[in-house]
Amino acid sequence: LVSCYGHAVYAECLYKNDWFCEPVGELLESWEGYRQERIRDLPDSPVDLTCFSELGLREEILMGIEWSMALSTVATFFAFIVLAIMLRNFRQLHLVLLNIGAVGGTTLLIMYPVACYVMDVCVGAPPLFIGVGLAMSIDYSLFLLTRFNEERLDGRSITQSLEIALATQGHTIVVSGATLALCFTSMLVLPTSTITSMAAGAATAVLQSVLVSLSLTPALLLTMPRFFTADRMLGLTLDGTPFGTYRRASSGTVAQFGATIDRPTIIENPQPKKESIWAHLGRCSQRGAPVMFLFLALVMVPFAMALTRFSYVEDLTPLMQTTHPATKAFISISNIYGQDLTTPVQLLIMAPSQKAMASREWSLATCHMLQDLATKVTDRMHEEGHDYTMTTADFNGLMIFRGGCLADGLKFGVIDVMPAVHMYGMYDMVADLLSNRNQTATQVYVHCQVDLFSEVGEAWMRAVRASLPRPEVIRQPLGGHQDADSANYVPYGRWDDVEIGALHLYGMPLEQMDGAQYTLRRMPYVGLAIAAIVCIILGGSFGTALIPVRAVICIAWMLVVTFGASVMVYQLGYLEGLGIQALSPSSGQALFWISPSVAVAVLVGLGLDYDIFLMDSVMEHWQSGKDGKSAVVTSLDQAGTIISAAGVIMFLAFGALLASTTPVLNQIGFMLCVGVLLDCFVTTKVTIPCLMALVPDDANFWPLKQSATRELAIGREPSFGLEGIGQPPGFRRSLSWKWNGQGTPLG
Q1: How far is the C-alpha of 667 from the C-alpha of 585, rounded, in Å?
Q2: pLDDT tens for residues 666-699?
Q3: Backbone phi, psi, residue 404, to 5°
Q4: Closest CA to 151 of 267, 271, 20
Q5: Rounded to an integer, what distance in angstroms lies between the CA atom of residue 276 and that of residue 640?
Q6: Which pTM value belongs to this model?
Q7: DSSP per position, 197-252
Q8: Tens digit of pLDDT for each residue in 542-566?
Q9: In this structure, are residues 201 and 653 in contact, taking their beta carbons and an 8 Å threshold?
């Protein structure tokens, strides 16, 4: 593509979609409209028209992402209904919606200048950080508001309830947010701009979720206390508003529905609460802890075995909508013409000067270099055990055609047709297509005889890269690995004592291969970094040694089962018999390489979110005097339903990705849904009680001593004095007053 002023605008129209690319888009739309009209008017025509372009392909991928975001928006409606039922107040949904809007808006404001001046941000980054912001905002709001409402039901004033909610669930939010943000930040070491831009956006969204949850929500609760605490009929009344109803208080005074900021509410004759099913499940897991541990280990075995068969694809088709005409056109053209037309590999040759490129000597030397390159690639492929022979006919450019050097003529039999080609301007026409306007660089199409994304195709690309003629001063770096740019680029080359110029091997298959290999090669280091982050933050937060180790074990179990199930579904086709497209293998019978890379950080973050929420409650009850097993059961009784509701909400939000027609979004959605359900209904309800029951209390909470924490809890320093309510570590000095256990401050 060239602008009216002669400037190349291909990159701008293909990747940035600037305003001056609109005529190109309109032209593509008119062609597609003509195709549809012809099919409608001539249904029996033997001519089948197919429109394909990289611009149309990009638009199709964007449409798939936008459609998935729309589905997630619809699914969020049902998630909010579950959230409102858990909060028992539809009015408090306003707080959640405002949090989500504030997080999304501030994250966009931060990421926009980052995209303009710091790094390229891929099209998948906004959906990811908006989804992460949505998930974290809902989770943090649920944790904070449920504790606030529980304290209100116990008769405390809004100020008292908010103080306790911030001192307890605020700790959960801060620790969870810091851990998740650092997990995403650790992915910045990956050498793929797609992953790093997603990670940067997600980390920003998490930090904004923490800040907004701990500032905006308390401010709104204190600003409009009556409105947000009026919960008659789940808040679906006018109580707490200027148009609300009034009731006669027991003392004979008139009081509005809702609550004041500082006056506690007296709850007379509270009803005893029945123990929940989650407490029963946790107690059963503790009683049969050895058997349950063995059962969980055996459950993991088939998923671990499936994970050993993990393979990935680098093709573009997982990014395309399966039902879109552009996808069918892409596949049809690839099958008919090969990948040379849809995803070509090209060699860019930048001559020393325009004069050199126009000379016969340069053309001959470049042609001889390419002919020798074919021989070296063949030898290298045979050395690696691949039965592949590259011929000189696999190169096509200004200097070589059908294996022969054009400087020596273009012969068909004994007839040289090169003069006629020059005379009728056909050579100049091809030169305009293959060269830049200054006639200082040209591109050569390099043909591969097999699928570029297959094992042999990748070996061929590595062989071509390694066989490029390099100056003697350039040496392979220590360790044997070169980055993609240095491997694909040769600063200058000489052949037949003629300076050819710089060589650059490029193409989408090379980019996909390098991105996948370098990313997955560094993922073990990212995993170790995430494990270290979890241990350091959780160990410092809770003050114990085994809690972070146990958290890492639980997360590892969840990840093995989740990714093993993904391999079973999308690679081995275990659910293909259901006939559901979203649960069937895509092209290549393997996972797209970017799916596990994106899902792992989100799964770790959500798993830690629920883990920290439960363990905060466990520590609170343990510090108040309960033994470890009783503390776990009591915490499950109080927090089990909240965690389950959070899991259902996240399942509804992520489950919308399974309704998408884009395979990579189906894969990511499946991983997130399975991981969330495992975290909420297995890890927190079964695995944590089981693992903690296998270890004595002194070891579970080492080096903390219960006697010391109980002394803190009864007032040796400023603390909560509420019966049955301890303090989360790190917040023991967060309040400067004590409580008398009756809901009023001592001073």
Answers
A1: 9
A2: 899 899 999 999 999 999 999 999 999 998 888 8
A3: -105, 155
A4: 267
A5: 8
A6: 0.81
A7: HHHHHHHHHHHHHHHHHHHHHHHHHHHSHHHHH--GGGG-SSTTSTT--EEE-TTS
A8: 888 888 999 999 999 999 999 999 9
A9: no
